[in-house]
Amino acid sequence: MTEPTLGRLGRVFFRIGNTTFGGGSVTIVALQRELIDRKGWITQEDYGLAYAMARITPGTVVLAFCAAIAAKIKGIPGAIAAVFAVTFPSAVLAVLLTQGYESWRTNPVAMAAMGGAAAAVAGMMWAAGWLLLKPHFGPGWRALRIAIFAGGAFLAAWKFGVTPVPIIAIAAAIGFFWKDRELA
Fold first, then answer.
1. Which pTM does this prediction carry?
2. Every domain of the chain and the residues it spans
């Protein structure tokens, strides 16, 4: 395990933040693999807590998440470095892609390519969800409990249009009372 210097931390966030596609969920899962599994710079528990807190803060989830994780690893300088490493190159690319889209939006081949990319992004988002849930599955009732929480949150958001804050608050309240016996 290498020491998490500010430069190394910034390079990890730069590489992952600017080479993952499909939104914040995909970036968050890629960071999970790198920061927990490969580097060992943070625990799964701290990672999960940062993810949950980022989901309930206003603004962009991935930026709040990157700031929280990097701050946990290297303090405020780490948070600043991570957010800059993730946002600046992506912002430049977004401007360039917007210009390209405006130029090519009437081209059927370009639109077909975008449709294929959208389908791939949906698949990556499903994979990201699974990778975030997988460590919490366990024997017996744990799997059912996780399935109920994840499925309930999915249905509440998808079918009933419930926003994230009430979903997280309700899940936290239910989780408080429905404790996992193995963890209590």
1. 0.56
2. 6-107
